[in-house]
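Extended Data, panel c. Modelled sequence:
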Amino acid sequence: MASEAWTRKEGKNPKGGLNEKGRKSYERANPGSDLKPPVKKEQAAKSPKSAARRKSYCARSAGQAKQFPKAAKDPNSRLNKARRAWDC
């Protein structure tokens, strides 16, 4: 059995996070989940709900950066790419 797309390169966005194929693959593997694409600052300004989601993600990922200092220092790490995608 092949692994899910969200765990392979084809399901990951080269700029950080998962692409649409990766999000759909994750949702099939984990029923009840509902992954949404990253929220940029411009999008968050239009909706308070999006702003809260972005703020929450940035706070959680800052904690990951402290927990994984090696990844935090690497500009090409998945963590830093995802933080850039969210404008953190």
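The CA atoms of residues 12 and 18 lie 4 Å apart. This feature is highlighted in the accompanying rendering.
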